[in-house]
Request: fold
Amino acid sequence: MKPKMKHIKWILPHAPEHPVTCNAGYESTSWMDLLEIPIKVNSPDNGLQQEESIQKIHELIEKEISSGISSERIVLGGFSQGAALALASSLKFDKKLGGCVVFSGWALPHQQLGKILDTSINKEMPFMVAHGKEDNVVLTENGIFVSNLLKQANAHVNFHLYDGMPHSSCPEEINDLVAFLKETLP
Reply:
């Protein structure tokens, strides 16, 4: 993507290691504790590590703003846990952002995003929500739920479902991302 998007700086943070309940408490790379897999819309959520992870993302954003980047030129995005984190982080950030990309993610129940959307300064920014129809890790119902949640708040949502795609990505999704970023960050 870099040759197509030379004006974009990519920052790809890595999750820290934490004990993860659904992995029998073993430490693994994780932005937050997960109680079960597959993740459904009504999966339980204890909220562990979520606030710390959101704070880390907010600190990364503030660092870019301090370096002279306008907050409205910053798009958050992620895949799976990273997507759930990007969605919560963008809606909880106190300055206008450029957009948010949610690949195979979900709305973290503990973060009560439906309530946050009412007052979020970022509810009107563009969102790209994309999910595979064959995802058996973060069930497809999550992508539909996130899209509907955002649309109910009158957010600008670019929603995509991909036939045959499991908990992964595909060339069509990447092409849709490039189009979204070209429109969002011209």
Remarks:
- The mean pLDDT is 96.
